[in-house]
Each structure stands twice: as structure tokens, then as C-alpha cells.
Design a protein that fits this description.
5 helices, mainly alpha, 0% strand, 201 residues
Length: 201
């Protein structure tokens, strides 16, 4: 393996570690935001009896803003997953090339070689994290919906509508992110990320 490929291999391994840690960090941020919102809502309610009349207005505004914030982070996580895949493909390509050029026999390779990794893998931990954040956004929007539309003489319809809002939001976000990753993952990084033409072979 020449010097350039050695440097490229190590740089891509570092990128893999960076993007994986970034994905986990973003999930931690979303979890912190969601738990903080819940704490603020209950804290506002317990301030004094006079705040009770404004409780649902406060809840609607807070959960709506939080949902928008989490949506931004969710988009960053989806893009981060795409960024994670390209170094993984490059590492595998370099490993495959290096193994094919060995002068000694090495037929028992135990590491990854495939270069057509799909960015959307149903059983990937990143996929589970993305679904978790989509679920948080759905729950916050459902609470916002309930806060603004609830008829407290009969809350059953409002609860059912909120569950529908949460389900549709969660599945829509997760589904769109999956389609985006599948679609963009078919392209060369120059086209998928920078919207430029793929380099000629």
C-alpha cells in the first residue's frame, strides 16, 4: 500500500469515529431537550394556582418550539449518517485493494470489504437512534396539538387525534429520512453532498 492510501485509510477511520460519536452526541442533545421540556411544563404548573389558566398555552408554545428544534437536529442526524457511509466505503475499498496486492497468501480475511453499503440499514444502531428522535418529535407535536385543541369536557377525541398526530409524524419523518438516505446513497459523494456531477470513471 502506497503512502497516500495509508494516510487516506487512517483519515477515513478517524472520520468514521468522528461521525459515529457525533450521531450519539446529537441523540443525547435531543434527549436532554425533551426531558427539559417535560420538566419545564410540570414546573410551570406547580409555580402557583394563577399559572394554571395559562398552562396549556404555555405547553403548546414550548412543545411546538422544541419540536422545531428537534426537527433541525433530526435533519443533521440524517445527513450525518450519509457522511458516515462514505468513509466506511472508502476504508473498505482501500482494504480490498491492499489485500488483493499482498504477496503472501491471506485467504482468511475477517474484516469488511463491501463498498456498496446502503446508508439506510434497518438494523443499524444509527437507524434506531433516528427513529427515537422522530418519535420524540411526534410526541412533542402531539402534545402541542392536544394543548391547542383539547375539549376538556370530553378529552377522548383529542387524545385519539394526538395519538394519530404522533404516529403520522413519527412514521413520516422516519420514512422520508429512509428514502433520502437510500436515494442519496446511490450517488458518488460529489453528487450526493455537493450536487456536482459524478467524476468520470
Amino acid at each position: 500500500m502506497d503512502d497516500f492510501l495509508k494516510v487516506e485509510y487512517q483519515a477515513c477511520l478517524d472520520l468514521l469515529k468522528y461521525y459515529d460519536e457525533r450521531h450519539v452526541s446529537l441523540v443525547k442533545v435531543t434527549t436532554a431537550i425533551s426531558s427539559s421540556v417535560i420538566s419545564l411544563i410540570f414546573g410551570f404548573y406547580t409555580l402557583s394556582p394563577s399559572t394554571h389558566s395559562y398552562f396549556w398555552h404555555f405547553s403548546a408554545v414550548l412543545t411546538g418550539i422544541a419540536a422545531i428544534g428537534l426537527l433541525t437536529i433530526f435533519a443533521a442526524m440524517v445527513q450525518n449518517r450519509l457522511y458516515f457511509i462514505y468513509p466506511a466505503r472508502q476504508v473498505n475499498a482501500i482494504r480490498h485493494s491492499a489485500l488483493s496486492q499482498l504477496t503472501v497468501s491471506f485467504s482468511n480475511n475477517q474484516m469488511y470489504l463491501t463498498t456498496d453499503i446502503n446508508p439506510f440499514k434497518p438494523l443499524s444502531l444509527h437507524t434506531f437512534m433516528n427513529f427515537l428522535v422522530a418519535l420524540q418529535i411526534g410526541a412533542l407535536l402531539a402534545f402541542c396539538w392536544f394543548s391547542t385543541t383539547a375539549d376538556f369536557e370530553d378529552v377522548t377525541p383529542s387524545i385519539l387525534c394526538s395519538i394519530i398526530v404522533a404516529t403520522i409524524t413519527t412514521l413520516s419523518l422516519f420514512g422520508l429520512s429512509a428514502l433520502y438516505l437510500i436515494r442519496q446513497g446511490r450517488y458518488h459523494p460529489d453528487k450526493a453532498v455537493h450536487l456536482r456531477k459524478e467524476p468520470a470513471e
